[in-house]
Each structure stands twice: as structure tokens, then as C-alpha cells.
Amino acid sequence: MSNLTFEVGASCWVLSVSEGPTRADYNLVGWATDKSASTAQWTPGEKFDRSPQQGEVITLYAVWSTEVYTLVFVGNGATNEMGAAKMSFGGNQKLPISALKRPGYSFCGWAERALDAREGRWNFADGAVLARPLAPLGAVKTLYAAWSNNVYS
């Protein structure tokens, strides 16, 4: 990330989440002057309220959190597999669209329990927006594909 220069006494804001750096499997919490900080002094997009002296260099370090969990998808008879998904604890997280195929069946949705999936019951539609996280931080949660038999008469 490049350096930013500001005039003494000028107002500035720390980078927001959309403008700031990214790091796989981490969320940007904010910024701090201590390289090893675990809490942010400034949140993304907040006004930087420190007045530097003429020629002073202030370095801000990104503060990260691992607010993710992993979803693993079991195909229940699918002829292919679907990779795991890293899910964030932020709002409006969507389940990935199923890439599973099972000849003679239609995909219905995802069940949290294997028995429910085998009996054709599911908790989440394909690509559903989640109202809540499905697992604790850092945990792995398994979802099971529910299918309906394509019966033709």
C-alpha cells in the first residue's frame, strides 16, 4: 500500500473497508499505531484525530480479526463435489449456489442434519441469505444436500 501525505492541520480519514487492504480469511477491524495491536484505535472510515508535527511520519497498521467459519458441503449421492466456503460474521452472508449434480434428482436445499437431508427436508434454499452465523468463530459446519426424486409419469 502506498504512502499518503497530508498537510499539517488538515483533516483526514483512515481508509474504509472498501478502500483498505484485504487479507484472505480475515476482516479489517481498523487501524492502530502499534504494529502488534489487537484492538483498533480508529475504525475504517473514521476521522483521524491526531495532529502530526511538521515532518512527522505516522504509520498506521491494519488490525485484523479472523471472524470466519467454514462450511463443508456433503453431496448425499451427488456425482461431483463442492468445495468448502469461508463465511464471515458480517450481515447478509449468502450461501454459495450448489454446483452439485445427481442424475434423476433435483437439488432442494441444504440441511443442517444428515437425517433431514435424507428425508428430503432442508433448512436453507440454494443461495439463501443467512440471518445468523451457522457456526462459532473458526469452527467447521457441515451442510447436507437435500434432493427430490424426479418422478415422471
What can you tell me about this protein's structure?
It contains 1 helix and 10 strands, in the order ββββββββαββ. The protein is rod-shaped, with a radius of gyration of 23 Å. The protein is 3% helix and 31% strand. By secondary structure, the chain is mainly β. It has a 4-stranded mixed sheet with strand order 6-5-10-8.
Brief characterization of the structure:
By secondary structure, the chain is mainly beta. It is built from 1 helix and 10 strands, in the order ββββββββαββ.
Topology overview:
Layout (H helix, E strand, L loop, with lengths): L11 E2 L13 E6 L14 E2 L12 E5 L2 E7 L10 E4 L4 E2 L10 E7 L2 H5 L10 E2 L9 E10 L4
Parallel strand pairs: 5-10
Antiparallel strand pairs: 1-3, 2-4, 5-6, 7-9, 8-10
Characteristic key phrases:
153 residues, mainly beta, 4-stranded mixed β-sheet, 10 strands
